[in-house]
Write a structure and sequence with these properties.
The structure is a single chain. The chain is of the alpha+beta class. The protein has one domain: 3-Layer(aba) Sandwich (Aminopeptidase), CATH 3.40.630.30. It contains five helices and ten strands; from the N terminus they run ββββααβββαβαββα. The strands form two sheets. The chain has an eight-stranded mixed β-sheet with strand order 3-4-5-6-7-8-10-9, sandwiched between helices. Strands 1-2 form a two-stranded antiparallel ribbon.
Length: 233
């Protein structure tokens, strides 16, 4: 595509004359092959508490929250997330058991510019590195791009959080840079790695997710035959 120029012969971006402010995320209930992603409610609290207390405490190292000291403190944390005015929280359920195994949110919601971030991701050990977790990310991205019609989907994390960085790249988010000394949390400094996925890239990524999640891509033990990245080539 030829570069657009203004009357002063300066390069300018693509025209978006029909652009309209995007809606704020709300209730969603997406059902996949292996998972369900739905709005977080108090009814999920007890089983989420069980899933998280059965998981390793290291999972909380790069989260703002600390591991729950009691069910009551965890319940308060969940209520705080549900009542948040700036973020919308969802839970990931194992479709087979209907049990919630983790939470994630849509946050830093910029409706005017169509920019939104997936964050505060807390997956229990029973959810991590499973088809369920990958499909959950796929379903949330589908909601963002196809129903809400945002144009930019972001992923940010502590630059020292190697598993999060690896996951972002595996899912298709592209690394854009690191904001040095960006945040202070848990009495320590955080530099933040930024990643993004664009609506123009979504058709390729959607096809890759669909092909990876197909039953024929897994052997009889549930081990993948081809990696997700292979379907984006």
């Amino acid at each position: 595509m030829a570069q657009r120029l203004n009357k002063y012969n300066q390069p300018i971006g693509e025209e978006l004359s029909n652009w309209q402010k995007r809606q704020f995320p709300s209730d969603m209930h997406y059902v996949g092959k292996y998972s369900i992603v739905t709005k977080l409610t108090p009814a999920h609290t007890k089983e989420l508490y069980s899933a998280f207390t059965d998981s390793h405490p290291r999972n909380w190292t790069y989260l703002i929250d600390e591991p729950p000291e009691s069910f009551e403190s965890f319940e308060q944390t969940i209520v705080g997330k549900i009542d948040s005015s700036g973020s919308v929280y969802y839970t990931v359920l194992n479709k087979e058991t209907n049990k919630p195994l983790g939470i994630l949110s849509l946050m830093r919601i910029n409706q005017a510019n169509g920019v939104i971030e997936v964050g505060d991701i807390n997956f229990s050990d029973a959810l991590r590195r499973t088809r369920i977790s990958t499909e959950a990310h796929y379903l949330l991205a589908k909601y963002v791009f196809e129903e809400l019609q945002y144009r930019r989907y972001e992923w940010k994390c502590d630059s020292l959080n190697a598993p999060s960085i690896k996951t972002a790249k595996r899912l298709g988010f592209k690394y854009e840079g690191t904001f040095r000394n960006d945040v202070i949390y848990k009495n320590r400094s955080r530099s933040t790695s930024w990643f993004s996925m664009l609506v123009e890239e979504w058709p390729l990524y959607k096809r890759a997710f669909t092909q990876w999640l197909a039953e024929e891509n897994f052997d009889d033990k549930g081990v993948q035959i081809q990696r997700l990245e292979a379907f984006r080539k």
